Amino acid sequence: MDVESHGLDGIGFTLGVGGRSTHVRCPLPGEHHVYPALAAAAVGLHEGLPVEEVAEALGSARLDIRLTVRRGPAGSTLIDDSYNASPASMLAALDLLSELPGRRIAVLGEMRELGAAAEEGHRRVGARAASACDSLIVVGEAARLVAEEARRAGLRDTRLVSTADEAAAILREELRAGDHALIKASRAVGLESVVAALVTP
Question: Is 149 found in the same domain as 81?
Answer without folding.
Answer: yes
